[in-house]
Amino acid sequence: MSSKTETPALGAAAAEHTDEGFCQALALYTTLASRPTTDRHTRLVCLAKKAALLDAHPRIRAFDSRRSKGRNGSATLHPAESSSSSSASAPLRPLLIARAAVFRDLAAAYKESGAAVNASAAYDRAVQLMQLLPDDSDCLSETLAEWADVEESLGRATKASRLRERSRGCAEEKE
Asked: Structure pTM?
């Protein structure tokens, strides 16, 4: 779910959303964040704004609300939710994929800027969001491994070891 792979899902989700302001804001932040001339701080701000926009999307908020009322908040995306769409709303799955991708991109940007604690928090959120999409274990495995590297850089060897173990478990599940 690097920025190269999240853009089509985000574009498809945004294109089907009827709120023109939402689409324009996502397009603006995506453009600014992906420009090679954009400085680190602006890139981080744009990625954070994209995450906030997606978190505030009505379909995502409704999904999060249903999930938080469920048992331990551990619900995953159901097939009916995945593709359901009316003319007034985008399918939920592309929005959830885009949101997880934005948090992964945000974590990578924090990591690159040397903000390991912020990177760790963003990787944690990305993993939580990816777990809602059970058929994407490759990306989850990669994200867990990246998160483990950050935890190791923070001197958290035990947590890094557990994350690497989870990463290997995800990779083995795929096989």
From this structure: 0.81
